[in-house]
Backbone:
């Protein structure tokens, strides 16, 4: 028994080291597993559908499932296209001289206050000139060649990632249960039954978690889009979609969603008075406050506590540990990884107490 746990510990340590060293491959594999879990029900349903008395080939069912994802992605992209186009038009028509004049008045007031209290000793108007020259120097100092190179490298990496994830997902769906069978083949016969039980429970909990996340995204999108439309905010669907997706990032996601909504509201609104901006911000924050209260009281306890069967305090600690290890990505994947580890440990502990093979070898 002691030898078994030593081997298990060495295996987990080696797996973590491999995952950390080949982080890109690990990310591709994790994303593929998630995508395969989401597409498997649709793929199985299509595969079991009879056409001219025969099953639809599994490879064709997978391609149809991929087409559904691509179609959905295009529809979501069309929500952002009008907003991006609007922002380009706004930037191209900005009156920069007018903006400088609007900025100069508050800067001059700040400068007068600083001079009055002898915090600075400069000629009047020099503070604005320093700010203006700093902005010009910053823009002039930008390496646009490096910027374009960064965009090209990022696009290339994204393209390679999409191809890799699509390739891995295709074969995970084509060979249904391939990864599970290969891992179980490496399991010694005395621990086969225990391993199957562990896999079954992990798959069930992760499936519940992913289904819960999908429900959460749909619910937040529906509430936010409805609320923003009622209060008259432009691009309500786009803001709601961004908020629903960013909400997948624990704790920081709601702030990102609300901030995005305020930025879009300010940049696309036509305001004649200063208090209109404040009123618009209050309306957006009110909608997001209602959405977050609903999410925190009803959705999150249902998704996190019940789907992965963990205490909210556990989830809180695990999320921040994931943020410490891998930043935003760690926060997103902290709960699934913790679920796998937690269920595996609990199942092996139960096996230690209940399974005869452990008692014989002790």
Residues:
């Amino acid at each position: 028994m002691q030898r078994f746990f030593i081997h298990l510990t060495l295996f987990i340590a080696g797996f973590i080291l491999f995952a950390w060293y080949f982080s890109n491959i690990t990310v591709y594999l994790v994303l593929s597993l998630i995508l395969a879990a989401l597409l498997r029900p649709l793929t199985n349903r299509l595969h079991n559908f009879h056409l001219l008395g025969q099953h639809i080939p599994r490879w064709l069912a997978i391609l149809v499932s991929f087409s559904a994802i691509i179609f959905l992605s295009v529809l979501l992209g069309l929500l952002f296209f009008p907003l991006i186009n609007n922002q380009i038009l706004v930037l191209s028509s900005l009156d920069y001289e007018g903006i400088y004049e609007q900025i100069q008045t508050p800067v001059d007031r700040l400068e007068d206050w600083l001079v009055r209290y002898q915090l600075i000793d400069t000629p009047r108007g020099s503070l604005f000139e320093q700010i203006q020259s700093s902005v010009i120097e910053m823009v002039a100092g930008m390496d646009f060649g490096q910027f374009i190179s960064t965009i090209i490298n990022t696009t290339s990496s994204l393209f390679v990632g999409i191809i890799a994830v699509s390739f891995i997902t295709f074969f995970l769906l084509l060979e249904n249960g391939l990864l599970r069978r290969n891992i179980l083949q490496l399991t010694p016969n005395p621990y086969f039954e225990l391993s199957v039980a562990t896999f079954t429970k992990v798959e069930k909990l992760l499936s519940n978690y992913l289904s819960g996340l999908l429900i959460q995204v749909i619910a937040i999108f529906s509430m936010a889009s409805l609320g923003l439309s009622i209060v008259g905010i432009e691009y309500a669907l786009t803001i709601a979609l961004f908020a629903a997706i960013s909400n997948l990032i624990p704790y920081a996601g709601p702030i990102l969603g609300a901030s995005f909504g305020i930025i879009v509201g300010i940049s696309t609104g036509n305001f004649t008075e200063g208090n209109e901006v404040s009123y618009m911000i209050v309306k957006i924050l009110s909608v997001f406050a209602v959405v977050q209260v609903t999410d925190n009281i009803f959705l999150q306890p249902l998704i996190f506590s019940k789907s992965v069967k963990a205490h909210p305090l556990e989830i809180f600690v695990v999320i921040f540990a994931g943020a410490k290890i891998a930043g935003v990505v760690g926060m997103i994947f902290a709960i699934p990884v913790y679920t796998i580890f937690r269920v595996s440990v609990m199942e092996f502990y139960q096996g230690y107490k209940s399974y005869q093979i452990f008692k014989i070898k002790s």
Notes: Confidence is low (pLDDT under 50) at residues 357-362. The radius of gyration is 27 Å. The chain has two domains: 21-71+94-176, 194-362. The chain has 13 helices and two strands.
